[in-house]
Amino acid sequence: MKYVRMPIEIESPEEVGYDTIRFNLSESSMRDRKLSDLGLRLEDLVLAYGIHRGAPGLRTLVARQSGVTEGDILTTAGAAGALFIIATTLLERGDHLVVVRPNYATNLETPRAIGCNISTLDLKFEEAFRLDPERLEGLLRPETKLISITTPHNPTGVALDEATLRRVIALAEARGIRLLVDETYREMSFVPKLPVAASLSPNAISVASVSKSYGIPGARVGWIVCRDMQLMERFLAAKEQIGICGSIVDEHIAEAALAGGPQWLAAVNKQLRATLATVEDGITREKRVEWVRPQGGCVCFPRIRADAGIDVDKFYKTLTEEHATCVGPGHWFEQDRRFMRIGFGWPLEAELKGGLAAISASLDAAARS
């Protein structure tokens, strides 16, 4: 496989240095939590090999919130690990898949590294980034092996409705295609939450993690949900050959986070509604920017208006160098750089307001005379 580093990773805050950033609006998760926030003491934890499928208590908690059984859960090294296992298990060089775009870069780059033929279902700003099942169906081929979608969507925050999800599942079932649904933001929703896709069909594979909603990306724990036991055995084989099992420490932390999930997630959703209102107010005031209001997650994907007369390269240069403000520019997602992903879950309220003010000031500086 030919691996290529992704811009979203090369230019990430952890790579450029958090000490260089004053207003960080680029994060796609809640603010990072401390181990002490979970009330955990780890000094008596035995550091043995873990159970290969994942810690039973953790898998039980995931199964309970997913509407499936513990046997339908496989823990992984974050959602990124899950996506890698799924792609490398299901796809070979020359296979065809359909992927929604914009998308988290791994959903595109791993199939490219494998050598797959990829058709992108491009979500359009003018259509409120809605997924059109008819356009999706038009991209399918007899040799299509996988459909890859995300809801709530990263980076736009747009969510599928249940009728659309069920229609996509029906398309996959009718053609014998696997459907990957990245549901990392499922627990952060401003609209009614969908059922976990894997609970609706053995053809569907759901992926999530503790990185985003639970605010603990440093505990590298995600999971695959799938009701096809033969396929789950293949996923398990991949996991065992990559790393045998998950980290005992990470899975212990993740289990504690999920056990306290109801109270934590209630606080998260209350916070997100407040910070989303802050973003909405800022974008409403900034007439040179337009957006599609997100329905879930903690990110949105506004863009600089084409008729605003902005030198986009100068905008980003000013934003970074003069205001020490970081957003996720459109090229992270193979989109025009007029787009930017703004995360509103990670920054504190004052940081979010400061970052939004820096965006406006940078637009002022980048205005063409």
Characterize the structure shown.
The protein has 369 residues and is an alpha/beta fold. It folds into two domains: 7-28 and 262-365, Aspartate Aminotransferase, domain 1 (Alpha-Beta Complex), CATH 3.90.1150.10; 48-259, Aspartate Aminotransferase, domain 2, CATH 3.40.640. The chain contains twelve helices and 14 strands. Strands 2-8-7-6-5-3-4 form a seven-stranded mixed sheet, sandwiched between helices. Helix 7 links the parallel strand 5 (144-150) and strand 6 (178-182). The longest helix has 25 residues, at 261-285. It starts with 6 loop residues before the first helix and ends with a helix.
Brief sketch in words of this structure:
This protein has 369 residues and is an alpha/beta fold. It folds into 2 domains: 7-28 and 262-365, Aspartate Aminotransferase, domain 1 (Alpha-Beta Complex); 48-259, Type I PLP-dependent aspartate aminotransferase-like (Major domain) (Aspartate Aminotransferase, domain 2, 3-Layer(aba) Sandwich).
